[in-house]
Amino acid sequence: MKIQILTSAILGVILLGCGKVQQIQSIRNYDPVLSSAAQEDTTVTTIQSKRDKHGRQVGLISAFFGLDDALARAADQGVWPGAGGKDGMPVILSHEIDYKTMQAGDFRVTTASGKVGEILAVTLAPADDKGEHRTVLFAGRYGSIDDQPAKVEIVGNLLSIDGTLNFKGESIVVTPLEEGPTMVWAETVPEAEWEIGKKATPLPWGGGSGAAEGTKTLVRVTWSGGVTRPVGGEVQDEERLLYKVTVLLANGSKQVVTPFAIGDLGDGDNNHELCLDVVGTPQSVYFPKARLVDPRKDLNPETTIAIVKSPAR
Fold it and tell me: What domain range is 241 assigned to?
């Protein structure tokens, strides 16, 4: 299905870095292969494992009720026909997934009153760069501000990107609509994925900028939903300076550093890549309260997250 226009309000997508003509041409040529509206689990597998080779348990790490009946009308084309005006919720998993095993019918949302909601479609876009395939965006009717989604369950066979793990049976409590976004995942990024100097693609999704020249260590942080500045638009130096990363140095001491640049901008997703000019083992990331907002304009609380060493996928 070819797309004419894509605007994903749930993740604060904006058009950056190219002329309007080029943007429109790129959007028209986009094929949303990372979306599914299948209402049944179509994945046949014998895989049942719940722990990866590092011993880390599979699971859901966040489900964020981001928008109530407020997905942009253009989501009819960018997410799935009929998605415009529906609820929007990013759901984040412990490991990257194989999108070919992902169907809308793999998931179930239950509201506080016990009603089972309708999931029209699910998609990995716009968080579809390499290393990001852990955020699934739901579009549908699965709650309201008066009867909010309370629980997300995986009821079908959903496999990890390497095909060794199955998420079936996992569940999580949903973060309410009124709460602001937090960091829910952080990992070091393998040097082979740094893409030094890469510019964001003409598309407003699926092609964020790469790391900056001079990067010695790269940390990817994943927020519970898309974040922008309160005045709109991608983060700038003002927000970059607020990130604080604790790094364990080779001599055993710890140093708190600020990233000298931020990568993975320009695609409107829920990830930032923190470019560090020190060599060491990153241990945690901190960001202060009330400096970023979700698409509903809820301010973030103070947030800290431990960093997982790559490869975590």
Answer: 183-306
Question: Is the CB of residue 144 less than 8 Å from the CB of residue 69?
Answer: yes
pLDDT averages per 10-residue partition of the chain, 313 residues = 32 38 49 82 97 95 96 77 93 97 98 98 91 96 97 98 97 98 98 94 74 98 97 96 98 98 93 98 98 96 95 51
Q: Is residue 58 part of a domain?
A: yes
Strands 281-287, 244-248: pairing is antiparallel
Q: How many domains does the chain have?
A: 2
Place of tokens 């998609």: 123
Cα angle value 207/212/216 (rounded, 5°): 120
Whole-number Å distance between alpha carbons of 218 and 269: 18
> Which pTM was predicted?
0.89
User: Per the domain annotation, does 271 fall within a domain?
Assistant: yes
Is 27 contained in some domain? no
Q: Sheet harboring 217-223: ordered strands across?
A: 183-188, 217-223, 271-276, 261-263
Whether 38 and 162 map to the same domain: the answer is yes
Beta bridge partners, 183, equal 223
Quick one: 240 and 207 in the same domain?
A: yes
Residue 237, burial from CB neighbour count under 10 angstroms (0-12, 13-18, 19+): exposed
CATH number of 64's domain? 2.60.40.1220
